[in-house]
Amino acid sequence: MKLRCAVLDDYQGVALSSADWSRLDGRVEVRVLREHLDERGELVAAVGDCEILVVMRERTPVDAALLKRLPRLRLLVTSGLRNASIDLAAARAQGVTVCGTASSSEPPTELTWALILGLARQVHTESRALREGGPWQSTVGADLAGRTLGLVGLGKIGGRVARIGAAFGMDVVAWSPNLTDERAAEHGVRRAGSLHGLLGDSDVVSLHMVLSDRTRGLLGEPELRAMRPGAYLVNTSRAGLVDGAALLRALREGWIAGAGLDVYETEPLPADDPLRSLPNVLALPHLGYVTEGNYARYFGQAVEDIEAFLAGAPVRELG
């Protein structure tokens, strides 16, 4: 008897074309859900008969309550090797194996720079004016060479962003709670003595921290007010790092010049969310990891995970 597998949140409809799912023919029946199902009842109705689920990043949280409503589930595959929205302890208790896939740090690094450059040169404003018959040149772009790039977090992605900043001729400074002078020097950057010091000295602040109880709300009103009025904030990491209400005030009242955002507390972002319409926000729909290479890696290794599970030797188990 075939097992049933559902691939969730395949927004672009490319999951099946990004990997060779035929390797599972005769053993697994695969279905794809393109629309995000936020309502739990609808989700359970759609996938409650499945033994295998493939989830994309943290688009659909899989907590203990949801797991209890999926008694047939035996294998949960997530893209990436870390997914904070999966309750690993609850999965183990229910006998559900959780596996992941590799993920590249290049795509979010590249998107971070797309946002930084877009903000600095007012690409969103000028492109819209050109398309809509508006003024020919209405803004004056900000130079990056000679300016200060502040990185909150200097891990794999932060380190890559730092090297590109140096290539643009920027003075790169970094801060995180455990960052040492030695590690900063390895990346060719200066270590800031404090978060507030970094915020006050930087023309562009880019966030690259893991979201945890310690880092949630890391940037609140005092921190945003510490930034320069002409500075830009870029967040391609996690929305929870920034107090959302304080960020809206900062953007509306001009505490900062603008923000480049790719992550939100609620995704997809509600149609009436003010972040969609603020003129000093360059907003993208969480595209940081969405590239052909990453999708081939995610779905290709998802197939491998399923094959290994069927063979009784799971790979890339999490938790």
What's this entry about, in short?
32% of the residues lie in helices and 15% in strands. The protein is α/β, with parallel strands linked by helices and 319 residues long.
Characterization of this structure:
The protein is of the alpha/beta class and 319 residues long. It contains eleven helices and twelve strands. The strands form two sheets. A seven-stranded parallel β-sheet has the order 8-7-6-9-10-11-12, sandwiched between helices. A five-stranded parallel β-sheet has the order 2-1-3-4-5. α6 links the parallel β6 (148-152) and β7 (171-175).
Shape, per Cα inertia axes: globular
Number of helices: 11
- What is the chain-wise order of helices and strands? EEHEHEHEHHEHEHEHEHEHEEH
Mean pLDDT: 97
Q: Report the structural category.
A: alpha/beta
Strand order of the largest sheet: 8-7-6-9-10-11-12
